[in-house]
UniProtKB/TrEMBL annotation:
It comes from Streptomyces noursei. Residues 9-21 have a biased composition (Low complexity). Residues 23-36 have a biased composition (Basic and acidic residues). The keyword Translocase does not apply. Residues 109-306 form the Aminoglycoside phosphotransferase domain. It holds the Pfam family APH. Residues 1-36, 70-89 are annotated as: Disordered. This is Putative phosphotransferase. One of its GO terms (molecular function) is transferase activity. PANTHER family: AMINOGLYCOSIDE PHOSPHOTRANSFERASE DOMAIN-CONTAINING PROTEIN-RELATED, AMINOGLYCOSIDE PHOSPHOTRANSFERASE-RELATED-RELATED. The keyword Ribosomal protein does not apply.
Amino acid sequence: MRPGPGPDAAPGADRAPGAPADPRPRTTTRDPEELTRRLSAWLATRLPGARATGATVPASNGMSSETLLFDLDHPAAPPPGPAPDGVPTSCALRLAADPAAYTIFPRYDMPRQYRTMQLVADHTDLPVPHAFWLEEDPAHLGAPFFVMARAAGRVPPDVMPYTYEGNWLHDASDAERDRLEAASVSVLARLHDQVPLDAAKFLATPGTGDPLRRHVDAQHAYYTWVVDGLPRSPLIERGFAWLADHWPDDPGDTVLTWGDARIGNIVYDGFEPAAILDWEMAALGPRELDLGWMIYLHRFFQDLTRSGGQHGLPELLRRDRVEDRYAALTGHPPRAMEFHTLYAALRHAIVMLRVAYRQVHFGEVPVPADPDGLILHRDTLEAMLAGRYW
């Protein structure tokens, strides 16, 4: 992802997790100027006289959904939510993925994301961007979308990853990074402890069995969709077999999980969270789903950095420290973390395979002889399966 201001300084959140860095794969077939014109026409139906100004598409615009950053200018009154009278409100439009752009996920449920953000805002003290409007009719912009406030701040970049030299987080002091880590783990603890389960039932994954079983089954169905008519991944299939052989005796509490729980989806004011972004992967499940994802995604970037000859940030988001901090905050010591970190790496591998096949679709890369070679963290996943990673 990219550094920059606002909830989509959060453009990191929009991009599929860990997608290849440079050159960026094609992300859309939409015309940004046409999108801006149609957005202004739609805004006028909600607030007569309103228009979008200063619209920009982030360079890191995502493949799982798209973002347009703009100022909402209205001569008479501000839009719903906090905004000084007569001052343009900084906004972010979150638009479902372009169906013509070989989407990363099979379905984009924008009402579900919008409802999840409202749920978290209503029941927690977490800084979730204020969502102004949801539009479910695809006639206006070609797909459903919602408009939310854009928070000022900065995001740990994905491109180049924050573990590389030359960005604000890498340049911070050890004490500042420690502060950011503690605040980020607190985000998970508060989310898991504060959202009442009854209010989040609409996020239950369909299927049978407990929420962890349903979650893994849904990921397997996603993998089947990714490889439909294309070479299958022996490594990913070995990963699913490993999960079956190492299933936790007790999957633990069921909570609302964020889904894409990583620091690249947080806008920071200094080193404190100012906005929590990207809720499209939210689901009910054990706490460790988020913990494993947060730990693993950092390790993905760290391993990539070390392989490139740099030291990286090995002390940041270290597994033992994240687990200890979370246990101290919640009273729930994380369990079965070998299972959950491997599951996170496996989920990431499926996304990366889809991103690679998307590049094949657009003629950016040739059809691979070895599909496992498309998985950047192949060696990591192999080491996890062999029990020699941690």
